[in-house]
Amino acid sequence: MKKFFTTLSNIWKIEDLRVRILNTLLFLLIYRVGSFVVLPGVNAAALNADQNKEGLLGLLNMFAGGSFSRSSIMALGVMPYISASIVVQLLGIAVPYFIKLQKEGESGRNKINQWTRYLTIAITAVQAVAYLKSQITPDAMLIGNPYFTILNTCVLTAGTLFVMWLGEKITDKGIGNGISLIIMVGIIAQLPSAFIVEFQSRTGGPGGLITFIVEIVALLGVVMFTILIVQGTRKVAVQYAKRIVGNKQYGGVRQYIPLKVNAAGVMPIIFAQALMFIPATISSFFPSMSTNSFLMALSNYNSWQHNLIFGILIILFTYFYTAITVNPNQMADDMKKNGGFIPGIKPGKSTAEFIDGVISKITLPGSIFLAIVAIIPALASLVGVSSIFSRFFGGTSLIILVGVVLDTLQQIESHLLMRHYDGLMKTGRIKGRASIPTASGATPPVI
């Protein structure tokens, strides 16, 4: 405990780090205050606060920190920006123009950022209209259409752009990744209420306090399991040739390439969830198919059919996303240019094949573990955990929380070590993580 307080004192002594942390807290406070400002022309008393507790709407409401159900000016949060980032990133794989931009360095990244912002505006405008039509009932409108729709579409779009600007400011002037921290704060904001609801339901039912304590212990175990997945790496030894420049010797030492067990991060869960929402969407557009037993099973988040297909999709998307984000050929070429080689492996094609084989082997257990984490909330609901509290037992929310916290702690530790202070941990160091990629190379989360 003394070590912990000493570290906090060291953090406060470093002026740059202290200012960055205070800036981060200030920007997050502005975001939380804005999330309670209701859209103009909306009667907040007429809103149904319980309409967004389940399914996709419940997930979006969690990421938005409750703004979605409150019809806030920031109801859509950063999800349109993350969607635009994913689209632009996929375009960077298939469209030659975006592939060229990725190779142009800083100027290329600026153009990609510009395209991402334009696409964010378009996605937000479409989602804003859909949100107003589906979530705001006529009795909650104080202004008649079409003025209500036009006005609040502009307000929701501006709110999303403002949240995106806050995230960029946190990244530049604060500590950690801004977009990721905004999503994390939104998720954490739902934890106290979920904790209280679960405590009241358990203490007032069979099992009492003992059952609640068992749930908390199980939650800690899942968090530890998730940390192992996020930080798990396979080190590949690399030997660099010895070079003598002037009177100094360079190279001749063995280093390691850390290949992450979960290189895809949270993206496979996001893609799989998007596909699993298709049956419910089909049922909403075609009411006659809503009685189909197969579609009903796929739309039920606690059914074994839903979770089986969900887990298989996560495994497939993990391989897919790892294949498009990790390039063994590029790694082998860079290693060869720098005079490095893997002991016992020929440089060039053989090295690329070896790295690809290692990635394939470690991706399988990583994808299976990720699928297990994703379906744990459904398993928790089956044993009686409330639907709100069960979301913290796994899935997208838990992986984002763990990843963002580790990433932020790593940056704080880097500041401490640069000033010759001890890190946050007495033994070992906080390892980095593979965050949610964006078109600009930044790492927000999502979603």
UniProtKB/TrEMBL annotation:
<keyword id="KW-0472">Membrane</keyword>
<feature type="transmembrane region" description="Helical">
    <location>
        <begin position="209"/>
        <end position="230"/>
    </location>
</feature>
<feature type="transmembrane region" description="Helical">
    <location>
        <begin position="362"/>
        <end position="382"/>
    </location>
</feature>
<dbReference type="GO" id="GO:0005886">
    <property type="term" value="C:plasma membrane"/>
</dbReference>
<keyword id="KW-0653">Protein transport</keyword>
<feature type="transmembrane region" description="Helical">
    <location>
        <begin position="306"/>
        <end position="326"/>
    </location>
</feature>
<feature type="transmembrane region" description="Helical">
    <location>
        <begin position="21"/>
        <end position="42"/>
    </location>
</feature>
<dbReference type="GO" id="GO:0043952">
    <property type="term" value="P:protein transport by the Sec complex"/>
</dbReference>
<protein>
    <recommendedName>
        <fullName>Protein translocase subunit SecY</fullName>
    </recommendedName>
</protein>
<feature type="transmembrane region" description="Helical">
    <location>
        <begin position="264"/>
        <end position="286"/>
    </location>
</feature>
<feature type="transmembrane region" description="Helical">
    <location>
        <begin position="78"/>
        <end position="99"/>
    </location>
</feature>
<dbReference type="InterPro" id="IPR030659">
    <property type="entry name" value="SecY_CS"/>
</dbReference>
<feature type="transmembrane region" description="Helical">
    <location>
        <begin position="115"/>
        <end position="134"/>
    </location>
</feature>
<dbReference type="GO" id="GO:0065002">
    <property type="term" value="P:intracellular protein transmembrane transport"/>
</dbReference>
<dbReference type="InterPro" id="IPR023201">
    <property type="entry name" value="SecY_dom_sf"/>
</dbReference>
<dbReference type="Pfam" id="PF00344">
    <property type="entry name" value="SecY"/>
</dbReference>
<dbReference type="GO" id="GO:0006605">
    <property type="term" value="P:protein targeting"/>
</dbReference>
<comment type="function">
    <text>The central subunit of the protein translocation channel SecYEG. Consists of two halves formed by TMs 1-5 and 6-10. These two domains form a lateral gate at the front which open onto the bilayer between TMs 2 and 7, and are clamped together by SecE at the back. The channel is closed by both a pore ring composed of hydrophobic SecY resides and a short helix (helix 2A) on the extracellular side of the membrane which forms a plug. The plug probably moves laterally to allow the channel to open. The ring and the pore may move independently.</text>
</comment>
<keyword id="KW-0813">Transport</keyword>
<keyword id="KW-1133">Transmembrane helix</keyword>
<comment type="similarity">
    <text>Belongs to the SecY/SEC61-alpha family.</text>
</comment>
<keyword id="KW-0812">Transmembrane</keyword>
<comment type="subunit">
    <text>Component of the Sec protein translocase complex. Heterotrimer consisting of SecY, SecE and SecG subunits. The heterotrimers can form oligomers, although 1 heterotrimer is thought to be able to translocate proteins. Interacts with the ribosome. Interacts with SecDF, and other proteins may be involved. Interacts with SecA.</text>
</comment>
<dbReference type="InterPro" id="IPR026593">
    <property type="entry name" value="SecY"/>
</dbReference>
<keyword id="KW-1003">Cell membrane</keyword>
<dbReference type="InterPro" id="IPR002208">
    <property type="entry name" value="SecY/SEC61-alpha"/>
</dbReference>
<feature type="transmembrane region" description="Helical">
    <location>
        <begin position="178"/>
        <end position="197"/>
    </location>
</feature>
<keyword id="KW-0811">Translocation</keyword>
<feature type="transmembrane region" description="Helical">
    <location>
        <begin position="146"/>
        <end position="166"/>
    </location>
</feature>
